[in-house]
What we know:
By secondary structure, this protein is α/β, with parallel strands linked by helices. It is built from 16 helices and twelve strands. Helix content is 47%, strand content 15%. Strands 5-2-1-6-7-8-11-12 form an eight-stranded mixed β-sheet, sandwiched between helices. Strands 4-3-10-9 form a four-stranded mixed β-sheet. Helix 5 (167-175) links the parallel strand 11 (155-159) and strand 12 (180-182). Helix 6 runs antiparallel to helix 9 (218-237), helix 9 packs across helix 13 (300-310) and helix 13 (300-310) crosses helix 14. The longest helix is centred in the middle third of the chain and has 20 residues, at 218-237.
Amino acid sequence: MPVEPLPARRILIFGAGAVGGYLGAMLSAFGHEVILLGRPSTVEAIRHRGLTLLRPDGLQLTTRPHAIPDLDAVPSEVDAIFLTVKAYDTEAAIAALQRKEWRSAWLFCWQNGVDGETRLAAAFGADRVVAGTLTQPVSIVAPGIVRLERTRGGLGLAPMGPRQDLREWQAIFQLAGFSTRLYPDPQAMKWSKLLLNLIANATCAILDWPTERVLRDPRTFAVERAAFREALAVMRALGLRPVTLPGYPVPLLTWAMRWGPVSIIRPLLAFMGARGRGAKRPSLHQDLQRGARLELEAYCGAVVRHGARAGVPTPIHAALARILEDLSTGREDRAIWRDNVTALLERTGLSIPG
Length: 354
């Protein structure tokens, strides 16, 4: 008996950045009606030249989704809304969506951090909200052009409500070319992704170092390992266990960072970290370099915030957050912190390995 094809969906992507562009390009190429909400420069570029995805294997995909500068340009109801804006723009996005009064669209939260889904569920109801993770690094080359840095990885989906069945959406993403896995616990999934995002992120930004250098240097690796263990302690205090994400055995990484011998773990993670991100610099490093607002609340700030609620001390993440906040606001000189491992160790309270 023939299998009926899945109907095309109308999908609004709220934020036409790297993640939104990647998802939009793939879904548009496979027949879905994609509407990208983005900045005027991005909208103009997509309207004139289309949306282009560059792949690491040299292939290039150009599609022509709808591109709009504001929600008023969306004519009617949509099937799904993908929230891909920075964490600090969440409340503004929620307010804009509430004004549209869409009552049936599913809301997929693809943001970094661990709080976006909870905010969406409080505003729209848990049964409409889906937690999402993407474990493939993507970057913006120019307005309307995004680059997939590595093919390894894929998507994770987890329901925020008890009555959600995500198997059809899993099939939609898989047919569009994404390796997609379903998870029962959204917080376990999102915290597992946060553990990956934290590695060599803040430290790279502070020292102006690439990922591999941070993980190879025994002094900065000590900072990374202490910070990872802090985040893991918070996660465990919340009753959450790491889960394997597409392309990333997070439980194995957790064991290695807790118990593995430094002589083996440090060079291995340096190699894996450099390969995992491709040519893309960590997000905090990118934003600090271009003078953009830092998404601290989704990274170090999340560990500090949830650690305080769970009664778990997080001095390493608190120190990293303060340094980055001071660097981003000009209270600290970036030139003074560049390569200054000694100052980093002093501020985080760690001694130099002997």
